[in-house]
Every structure is written in structure tokens, then in C-alpha cells.
Amino acid sequence: MEEDSTSINGGPRFCVALFQSGCSNVMLCSSQEKCAKSGLNRANVKLHGCTGSRSNIAAAYAEDDMEALLTRPVQEGELEKTCTEIVSQVLPKSSTFLRNVGLQQTVATPNSIPPQMRELRAQLEAEKEESAGLWQKLQRLEAQAEESEAKSQKQAEEIDILKKATVDTQNLVQQMIAFGQSQATHQTTP
């Protein structure tokens, strides 16, 4: 059996060595099974290489910088930074790590937005402002309607009070007239 001189570790040379050593499970070395396993492993990767990679030294320096920023005393009038802000400050601006793990949202640059999208956004903003203006106008009109309804109810109550006072006054006048007539009849009959 001749070995392939161009194969790498795990290729035909490795299979031949396993066969010669008495390994009965030589079928595990087939390249098809390796490809299938690699495919399954790639499917399980959550954060691919696009998240960025760097050397261990760079990672250690970045970690030291983050710890220094975290332990730094807060200046007067300054808010304490969150962990996400510290990580985003230490990582280079081209890093996509925070976006890939979902801690930072992507911000589209104005040049990357198509003109039609910008026009639609401008129209949407204009409609929102118009809607807000109409909403305020509606609120004012509702307040005025409630105020005028309260005034008309108050006036109706005042009218009822005046009607009762008028009825009472008329009754009093009639009683006075009746009393005056009874007095006049008593004086004429002696």
C-alpha cells in the first residue's frame, strides 16, 4: 500500500498508520465523515470569526484598560459609565463585537441610507409633527367644549334658581295683595 505524500494530518497517511497499528475503526478517518462533522460543528458556532479576533496580548491590554476605566473615580458632575459604555470605548471603532452580541445597535450613516428612504423619513417626520399639532388642537377644542358645557350647566342652574325666586316673589306678592285686601275689608265694615 503506497502512502500519499501530499496528505496532511488526518488524511490517507493517518489512516494507513491507524490501519498498520491495528485500529479496527479505520472508517472514522474518511474525509466525508470529517466534512459532515465539520459542517455540524460550524452550525453550532454562535459567534463566528466576524466578531473580530486579536492576539492575547491585545486582549490583555484591552482588559486592563477596561478595568482601569471601571475603577476610575467618578469626576464631579459626571455620570458613572456602564460596562457597555466602557467596552465600546476600549474596543476599536471598527469592532462589531457589541453589535453581534446584541449590546449595541447599529447606527446607519446618512450616506448609507438611500435617498428614497430619506424622503420617506422626512415625510414621516412631517406627518408626525402635523399629527402632533392636530392632537394638540383636538385637546384644546375638547377642553373648550368641556369648559363651555360646564358654563352652560352653571347657567342652567342659575336660571332654575331665578325661576324659583320669581315663583317665591310672585307668591309673596299675591299674599301681600290678599292681606291688603283683607285689611281693607276689615276697615270698611265697622
UniProtKB/TrEMBL annotation:
Q: Which residues form a coiled coil?
A: 138-165
Keywords (alphabetical) are:
Coiled coil
Official protein name in the record: Uncharacterized protein
